[in-house]
Amino acid sequence: MRRPEKIVREKTGTVRWQLRYEDAKRSIKYKCFRTRAEADAFARTIDAARAAGIDPARRVGFDELVTEWRASHLTQGLR
User: Fold this and answer.
1) Hey, which of 38, 51, 64, 75 would disulfide with 33, CB 3.0 to 4.6 Å?
2) Long-range contacts: 57-62, Cβ < 8 Å, 24+?
3) CB 35 within 8 A of CB 7
């Protein structure tokens, strides 16, 4: 993952930090932060989730979550 990039707006002079990352579908996402510390913290959470095999950008509906839970618990005799 790339590190945060500093963005200075010419008209106002405000500084923002932009982070580019890939989601599970391999499309590029952008997210802006007010401080570099916030951007670095978000980058660490994304890196940690990828290392654990979790996609933090994934949106799961309740019906899909119930289906996954039933498949994983009821087939193994867990309740």
Assistant:
1) 38
2) 57/23, 57/24, 57/29, 58/24
3) no
C-alpha–C-alpha distance, residues 49 and 52, integer Å:
5
Q: Is the whole model's pTM more than 0.85, yes or no?
A: no
Rounded Cα distance, 35 and 74, in Å: 46
Convert the pLDDT of each residue in 26-79 to its tens digit: 788 899 999 999 999 999 988 888 788 776 667 778 898 888 888 887 766 655
Q: What is the separation, in whole angstroms, between the first and last Cα of the chain?
A: 39
